[in-house]
Amino acid sequence: MAAGFIRGVQEQGVAACAKHFAANSQEMLRMSSDSVMDERTLREMYLTNFEIAVKEEKPRAIMTSYNRLNGTYTNENQHLLKDILRGEWDWQGLVVTDWGGSNSYVEGVRAGMNLEMPAAGDDSACQLLKAVKEGRITEKKVDQRVSELLDVVLSLPQGNGAPVDVEQQHKDALEAAEKSVVLLKNEGNILPLRKGAKVAVIGDFAEKPRYQGAGSSMVNAERVESTMALLPGYFLKNVGYAQGFERQDKPNAELEAQAIALAKNAECVLMYIGLPESFETEGLDRTHMRLPQNQIDLLEKIHAVNPHVIVVLSAGSAVEMPWINCCEALVYGCLGGQAAAPAVLNVLSGKVTPGGKLAETFPVAYTDLPVSQYYPGTEYIAEYREGLYVGYRYTTTTKKEVRFPFGFGLSYTTFAYSDLTVTDKGAAFKLKNTGDCAGDEVVQLYISLPGGKVIRPARELKGFTRVHLEAGEEKAVTIPFDGYTFRYFNVTTNKFEVEGGAYDILIAASSEDIRMSSKFEVKGTGAADPYAAGNPARAKLLDCYRTCDVHAVPDASFAALLGHPIPQKRWDRSQPLGMNDTIRQMAYAKNPICRMVAKLLGSMIAKAIAGGKPDLNLLFIYNIPFRGMGKMMGGMITMDMADDIRFIVNGHLFRGIGRLVKHFLNRPKLTKAK
User: Fold this and answer.
1) Distance CA 395, CA 390 (A)
2) pLDDT above 70 as % of the chain
3) What is the C-alpha to C-alpha distance for residues 272 and 418, in angstroms, rounded to an integer?
4) Hey, which residues are catalytic here?
5) 3-state secondary structure (DSSP) of residue 286
6) Each residue's pLDDT tens digit, 517-532
7) Which of 132, 303, 321, 538 has its CA 20 to 30 A from that of 62?
């Protein structure tokens, strides 16, 4: 999917930038946290998506992530940028930092970084020039980085580009949104609703749609449509609208009463609920997977007076659903973009048959997933102890009950799968629409190796395709095998290998709905099991991974998976703060004023979050390392000055001020450095 997006962008003469490279899974301490994982988990779970995009469509740019990866910042991680990206994948393009994401400018250039953003005045350039003069980096290496950047810039067409067709863009947005809607429940085939249905619309999201993420991902849409403005064109007997609840989880008896009264007068209720912006925003991690309690309370009360409730859910990710029995239908609108409102209405009315499938598992409860035990990392490191067992890979292996499985989605029609044949080219079969309306089916190919020796999940998705069929139509479908299908990363040989054996090729409608299967013999590369060969003690420690018992992985087992001791987890509060320690860590600084500032910032952030309006600037400041000051101020604060501020925080007020004034007056200038 990423490859397809890149292709579309670059066909317009625009350089696509794939990000964030790599393994940045949390917002807390994102500029200092160290993502600690074994090499196989890194290669299979967190780099394969980039590998496909890079090899297939060659994005002109890659943006590195803020975090460390196994001890080294990604922007200066030679294993990531040199060995893998530019080496194994043979990628030619420019590497750019995330904003303020540069740690050592010199080491970044050495590893493969071409562009530091934002510009840090002349400070970074002077550091690089000094390193060249001192022989710490060669002029040839610097020239190489400049050449790589210029190759991209000069390859792009000049000019302002073609005029924008706003109307066509909106039509495209509508089509994309329609294909993304997922029907999760349709009890008694209450959907699609008939045009004459007497409906009540309840919920703040119907009037004020949540159609995109929050933070730096926000864009200014040319046009955003709302449900209430469009509703008369779909359901002529609309009995009214009630807001029902306050967005930020505050009880409001008056709004509740209005909604309940309205629901009593309707044949059915369209209830628009979801996660507010403050639950899914840059700078914050979700602390749970629940909807706001005021929405759940209202849903239960509405259901008590009118059982014909259709929930329209707006959210950017999975939520717990203990309230699932309080609705007859559930439509997951995701964050559907500027045309999300008409897309959902088209599905509700039957103008469009839903064909979207879930791209993640919806668990019964967050605590059902092993990642709940380890996420997020709260101090030095973020531990990926679950290894390969993420999402459906965990639930299908352990047979854990889920609310809705990965790949799941209902339709207004039905599909029959038949005539599966498997060759070394891939899986071929027939798919027939056996219902009375046209529809799309996203068919999925999983593999499984019963009795395999190498640790692996019970099944893994290896291909999918979307097929459109008119009522009664049948098509031949092929999902090809490729170089990713049977491979695994062997940490002993340090390359991808294939384990030989009789694989089950599974054709499915979801990760839990296997429609057909066939055995297929695969010749392996002959590599020994990397988890057993020559080290019985290590093999024993890894038993929890063989049995997928990863909810509470012991330290010794995680260290055995890593192949080295677990890095230091906790901040050493007895030591002075370093340049990559954060402003929030001033809470235990030597300087009492700085401790007070950290406490004040923390309370201001907590107050803003409680009010439903997280302050992204405060969050950024709170989590920024000291060296970030030298990267984000356009040269007004240099790296030396950032170090002086750190010196003051560590209890050296007067000497620190003296150093700060001296370095301010003598900020590096490229002309002087020459």
Assistant:
1) 8
2) 99
3) 39
4) 98
5) coil
6) 999 999 999 999 999 8
7) 132
